[in-house]
Amino acid sequence: MGFLSKLFGNKTSVESLQRAVEQKRYADAVYLADELNNQPLDQESSKLVAQWRATAGDGLARLNLLEGRVKQDSGKLDEANDYFALALQFACSDDVKEEIAQARQLPFEVISTRAPDPGAGCSTCGSADAAHSDRDALADVDDAIHFDLILTSYPENQRERYHHRGKDFVDAFLLAHGGNDVQANELFNNVKETDRDDLYWFEVGALQARMGHLTQAKSSLEQSLQQNPELFLAVEALVQVLLALGQADAARTFVEGKIPAENEDDFSPYHALLVTIHSQRHDWPAAVVHVRHCLQRGYSDPAFIALAAGVMEKVGDIAEAEGLLKRLPSGGGCKSNQINLTLAEFYLRHERELEKVFSSFNAAVKQDPDNPRWRLRLAQACFARKWHKDGLQLLQQLADAPALPAEMEAEVKQLLAHYGNSPQ
């Protein structure tokens, strides 16, 4: 079910994490890795995410360590210790943790002249030099490896088929997933007629949807399903396109037609799609029926769990909604005061666990400073804790930000109008 958001390019992917590490955007990479850990991953993908999360964590730790040393060298010990604490929060390898520990105790001059030990580290943790080598190696990733990286976000039972594609298809695929939609579309048009199978029409349909050509996307995805009615990738994508076209009834009829009257145990993903459809129509009782079906059969896709929690909250079953959200990973490492951001938004709506809510959104803002959603949620958490001055400052930052989404801009204006006139 989580593949739905991938259709429009919103889902965090392994290749986006790879690019962040390559570009040494360590804060982004840490955030992306934690987002990926909230998604279902196979063993290979989990290994890659863990490796790059460690590389990014150490990279971010070293940046904070350097800042701390500069502050330490200038005599600003309190500020230095703040940077060292932040560095320790992100550090993964023993080498980096050791450097931080020594920096907190010794003068900068001693630390800066410490000779590196080429034999430091171990085969599982890796030395600092090994981490740099890994990052250098990532910069040399060729198209074949990039292709494999993209496929790690695809259902495992489809990946082998993608490995038997022709060059035009692969080149177009790489361009499409790199955001080069126009060039990708041109290359897809060059693929031979005999090679235009169900996967071809799925990729073309997904590309057309991302480009906003929804009617064309619908036709392409229907062509994919004519060739292979069981291709769930195309089923998900077609549902998303139909909903975007305002054809919720057609989407519901289409999915219901895929579910047999008996032997429904293997059709939970289709019931999850019906939850999505009924939720868009605000038909919460109908959505609950399909939520119950999936939960009774142990369906645990993280995207579905988050959606199911929202449905249960809408019908007033707050306890079950909370229990479902607690199943999602926090993405906050071993820090017990952080919770997953979907649960944090739930608690914020109900004005509960406000200390954890504030801590979680504060960490999200630091890790993803360009995402206005978390800054808005942090402002709301400040208001919930009666910290009006801090909340107003955050709101003003959002009000001054360029290209704020219309819905968020309206929410910011509403909050400013309310709290800007209230006693501080």
Automatic annotation (TrEMBL):
It comes from the Bacteria. InterPro entries: TPR-like_helical_dom_sf. This is Tetratricopeptide repeat protein. It comes from Pelovirga terrestris.
